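Dear support,

Our group has been running a series of protein-ligand predictions, and this particular one with pyridoxal-5'-phosphate is the one our PI (initials K.S.) wants archived with full inputs and outputs. We had some confusion internally about which version of the output was final, so please treat the block below as the authoritative record. The input we submitted was:
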Amino acid sequence: MKHNFNAGPCVLPREAVEAAIEAIRDFDNTGIGILEISHRTPGWERVMAETRQLWRELLNIPDNYEVLFLGGGASTQFFHVPANLLKNKAAYLQTGVWAKKAAKEAKFYGDVEIVASSEDKTYSYIPKDYVIPTDADYFHITTNNTIYGTEIRYDMDCPIDLVADMSSDIMSRPVDVSKYALIYGGAQKNVGPAGVTFVIIRRDLLGKLEGERKLQTMVDYRTHAAEEDRNISMFNTPPVFPIYVMYQTLKWVKNLGGVEAMNKINVEKAELLYNEIDRNSMFVGTAAKEDRSIMNVCFVMAPGHEDKEKAFMEFAKERGMVGIKGHRSVGGFRASIYNACPVESVKALVQCMQDFEAANK
Ligand SMILES: *Cc1c(COP(=O)(O)O)cnc(C)c1O
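Confirmed final output from the archive:
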């Protein structure tokens, strides 16, 4: 058995995978596979509507927000967001390379103020002392820093529009959407496979720069939220199959009890692993304790044991662990334990760390 700790794309709920396989053979009892249907068939429009409805339900999204499913990944949102929202200046919290990349794209559209950065310590913590400039158009944060295992696990009060890249922790906990102007992310960490990008945007921001900046049709958020039936809204061909797998993944989240239940399970999984890291003499965590992510758990060999990194990697591999190599900028190990990662996998990794310690004492 394999234990999949990949950082993204990553493990999906078994149920979602099985449903997707079946839909490839026969979608909605049409006798035609989902890869071969028209996105204008009623059966597909129903999936679009239900998927949007699941987003609204699971995150309790207020009615004055639109939910969009786009292509291009979170990286495309790095410029879609400023293209649509940045008039003069934007503020960014630099908590990792994703945040840095987002800020870089914003510079094409206006001034960018980095209010704080944790680059000085390889992004191992979330800066706390900073002032959000009230003359900026928005403040951009990355709620979970996938590479470094730090997370902003609360919905902050922000005096200006708050924009969040939630690629790697969306649906892991309840979120007060009303505190955000816009939330976006790639689906491939917590809500589905690669190929679909979610955007949750407050309606009054649609067309914000009307008359001030001309936007390409596909870049303008209004294009994707414009249709009369907002639940079906498809300007062009959406990523049909990734949306279908996302639909099944969200149904799985709902059946488990929604994001409250998900959060409880995620906290339990993260505690199991962090407790072992803190207890085990061979390993140390890399992220500041108060900022530890419940999605990506980063650790390295403890001082004096650095030479055993390769050995542990081999040891873990033999026991079925997949994808635990840390990002090259942090080194060591990273276990991504997103929603769909079963607690059994976390327990297996903990056991593996204990066995490694015993074998090397
Ligand atoms: C993975 C990731 C991205 C990049 O997403 P793409 O969909 O590959 O463009 C951006 N931000 C965060 C926080 C991520 O984890």
